[in-house]
Amino acid sequence: MAVFPAVLDASVLFNRPVTDTLLRAVEYGLYRVHWSQLILDETTKNLIKRRRMNEAQAVHLQEELSKAFPEAMVSVPDKLIEQMTNDLGDRHVTAAAVVAQAQVIVTFNLDHFKSKDLEPWNLEAQHPDVFLSHLFDLAPQLFLQIIKEQSEDLTDLSVPDLLKKLESHVPNFASQIRTLE
Q1: What residues form DSSP beta bridges with 106?
Q2: Three-class SS state of 105
Q3: Whole-model pTM?
């Protein structure tokens, strides 16, 4: 199975259950994850603002992501960001994908990544539901195992409860997992 690179946008990293599933798929070698410092900073800024995470927790999160996925970080030159034509606030994400030689940007904000802006760079933006569904098609039984492990690692959260949480963000993927239960 070919392991291809993908960039996770802050909108995805902000969503804990989906992020957990996506990062477990990386650990099993289903794809290579990438992000930039700007993406991590945007994620933690939003977690502090919207989820009331404190500064120490935000720093800890970034440290843990860096330790767990040291190969994920890419350095993005400002000049490359300036060349991007997609939504101004997310040009750094597209530039990170170019540096990582990614094929896919995984994002909930598809409007910020129009095809016309990504095609020159051979990139595609995918909703996490589409991305996870494609990964599921590659290894259905492995994904069932991933979901079971994720449920076991979360205190008092059964597989059906986890799928219910995921369903609100990635309904097709959750439905695919249910077909294997």
Answers
A1: 8, 126
A2: strand
A3: 0.94
Q: How far is CA 121 from CA 32, 71, 178, in A?
A: 18, 22, 36
Which fold, 5-128?
Rossmann fold (3.40.50)
| Residue 51 reports pLDDT greater than 80 | no
Q: What is the mean pLDDT of the chain?
A: 94
Distance CA 87, CA 122 (A): 17
Sorted by sequence, the CB contacts under 8 Å of residue 98 that are 6+ apart come out as: 80, 121, 123
Give the other-Cβ count within 10 Å of 169's Cβ: 18
Q: In terms of Cα–Cα distance, which of 59, 61, 56, 60 is closest to 14?
A: 61
Query: Quick one: tokens of 151?
Result: 């449920």
In the prediction, which pLDDT does 155 show?
A: 77
d(CA 122, CA 73): 20
User: Per-domain residue ranges for the chain?
Assistant: 5-128, 134-178
Q: Do 90 and 109 touch, CB atoms closer than 8 A?
A: yes
CA–CA separation, 159 and 167 (whole Å): 12
Range list of β-strands (E), the chain:
5-8, 32-36, 73-74, 104-106, 124-126
d(CA 65, CA 62): 5
